[in-house]
Amino acid sequence: MFGDLSNKNSDEAIIEDVKKFIDRQMWTDAINKWQLLSPGGQALRANKVILASAYAGWGGLNTVTLFTSLGNMGSSTLFAFLMDAFKGKTTADFDKQVIAEGIMQTISVDAADRTADENIFLLFIEFAKIGTLLAGTGDLDGDGAVDATYENCTDLTATQGAHIATGIGNIIDILTVTGTSLAGSTLSDIQTNFCTPFPAVCAMKQVSDVDAAGIQVGKTLAGESNLGIGLAAPTNDPYCQLSTTPIDPTVDTGCGIPGCCPNNTATASPICP
Asked: pLDDT tens track of the chain, all 273 residues?
């Protein structure tokens, strides 16, 4: 072992340096150093987790802080809590969480084929992915509260809407496999209130899985209030809502296009077009 560490070009020595950079929050140094690993070293799942942790940390994820905060969610909806937890973060931080998620999914897309530790880490990445996205699009002044001008239907891109859907899908997949009680009853409520009426969306774990209807549901979920998950975005609430009896997002519900949001009162239950 000491022989390996004395060789500064060995995979073992490189990983020790990567860990030191991460401890110092020197994210780009950690990532650049990781790239010096041999192909075999880069393929090791433990080393993939280390690379993912560098990207996640760079994007603002502190697992200890987030774990502590989860125990004090109170009556906040999950999305409101996550937006506040990552206030001040930007869509650039969200992009780093997406990279971290992708690295973890090279180990496996399915929670059943990852270890418990890998799953819990990815669970925190999914929280961070959603939180940084909501903060970067819905809380531009960084005060932890949704902006009065936020319109989730128009302020989220199609890809970002898909990531809302896959964030929930991965969270539910991980919780089902691990049985963790993180965030208490909030996530079981999501499984009941969201996954029961939208089972197909809850099964989406990669953006490539998400169809146009899933994007509509993901965008709407970000700002809804009906199911007690989203941000209750002022400009869309109460018009853009999801229901336990979901409407077909591909059907024109009376406004001339499939879905009528934002700010259309012509139909009873529109979702983001």
From this structure: 555 556 778 999 999 999 999 999 999 999 999 999 999 999 999 999 999 999 999 999 999 999 888 877 777 889 999 999 999 999 999 999 999 999 999 999 999 999 999 999 999 999 999 999 999 999 999 999 999 999 999 999 999 999 999 999 999 999 889 877 666 666 777 888 889 889 999 999 999 999 998 999 999 999 998 888 999 998 877 778 888 877 777 776 666 766 667 666 555 557 888
Q: What is the dihedral of CA 190, 242, 227, 197, to 10 degrees?
A: -40
Question: Which residue stretches of 9-141 are H helix?
Answer: 11-23, 27-34, 39-43, 45-58, 63-70, 78-85, 91-107, 116-138
39 preceded by cis ω (within 30°)?
no
- Please tell me the distance from the alpha carbon of residue 136 to that of residue 154, in angstroms, as a whole number: 14
Answer yes or no: are the C-beta atoms of 137 and 91 closer than 8 Å.
yes
Distance CA 167, CA 218 (A): 9
Note whether 33 and 17 are within 8 A (CB): yes
Are the CB atoms for 150 and 144 separated by under 8 Å?
Answer: no
